[in-house]
Please model this.
Amino acid sequence: MSNLANTHPLAEFQQEAPALLDKFKTDKTPIVLTVDGKVKAVVQDADSYQQLLEKIDLLESVAGVRASIEEFEKGQGIPLKQAFGQL
Model:
């Protein structure tokens, strides 16, 4: 995790949830929750979470394309017509 600046114990979050969530709405900084000093959860707004998922999907797609290119360059690919024939 790269940003632990907005870290709060879970007990504090439970007591001060309305104030922390109001601040959260404006700055969109995830809230890191700890139990016994260890990070246990992260509260993040839904839009930022969706954007994160979309970035992960894109990165996984790019990794897949790179792997395919490497296979092709090693002569491990098959002709397009043959690939479509296997579908």
User: Anything to note?
Assistant: Residues 25 and 43 are 11 Å apart (CA to CA). The beta strands are 7-9, 31-35, 38-43. The longest helix spans residues 46-73.
